[in-house]
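Illustration 12: MTRR reductase.
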Amino acid sequence: MCCESKRRFLLLYATQKGQAKAIAEEIWQQAGAHGLEADMHCISEMDKYNLETEKDPVVIVISTTGTGDPPDTARKFVKKIQDKTLPPDYFAHLQYGLLGLGDSEYMFFCNGGRTVDRRLQELGAQHFYDTGLADDCVGLELVVDPWIDGLWLALKEALPLQKEKEGMNSAVDAVSSSLSPALPAVHELNLSSEVQNLKLEDEGARGSDVLSQKLNGINLVAPARDTEPSLIHSVPPISQSALNIPALPPEYIEVQFQDTQGENPHLSSLISEGTTFEVPVTKAVQLTREDAIKTALLLELDIADTAFEYQPGDAFCVVCPNNVSEVEELLHILGLSEKGDDFVCVKVKQGTKKKGASRPQHIPE
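Figure caption equivalent — predicted structure in token form:
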């Protein structure tokens, strides 16, 4: 039910398989704890909201489907805003923040969200919070969780202050216009609070000048001219840019090592489906240009000495061995040289506070 003491914002989601809806529902659930009320709708329910007259901030969570298309639930909406007859100030009154979901394994990463974001900008809409692009290839939560954490401060900054006071609705338009020049600063304030929540601890370097410096806002001071770039020193142009440092997500994955006791199982025993074969690569030709976003190769495999059955339409994947020296170096850096032959078991931690925690599908147990 609507609570008069809570400030409202419009929450829209466009989903294909339910992920964007689940994230929108999480935002809706958290809103009350921050003194806000989310008016949530599927973006296809255009009879329940009207962006042409919307005065409150709008939050959009949208996924990508196919080869970079908006989800089916957003097709009607996208078609409407892509109308070439719309004037460039059509959404000049609109303040919004957008979270796009995608997978970098595909060529057009987060293109569903990018399409809507770009078109809203072309029609005069303004960001009250920077766009987030979450990658399912590495884990959506790496972007989604910190993006939601920073959303609340940005919303409170964007909402007209007059709505906190009764009987002053006549002043809302004036204050909204006065807030417009300050919109770019909203995200900076949000990032400042995020940075303040980050803790840098290094027992071996507490006395160093680097760790004793205090973080002011989100701008990093450029090091001396002769300093090489590293994890703690930045050089132009990065040192001259405002960096968005995501908050560390809560730990919810537990890694256990099990001694194989001298066993050296074949790769096929570690793969749950199908059969594996070791075959030589007889030819490799690069099909894409050097400046292509992703490289495509034509590989020819010699399967003359391999007997297996296949049908038209069957698919196969290639498992390439890692360079032995690189593996040994990585184990040494991680302090796991003695665990090189152990089984690695990946499980969800018991008692984790992360909602809906599950083992990433691309990592076998």
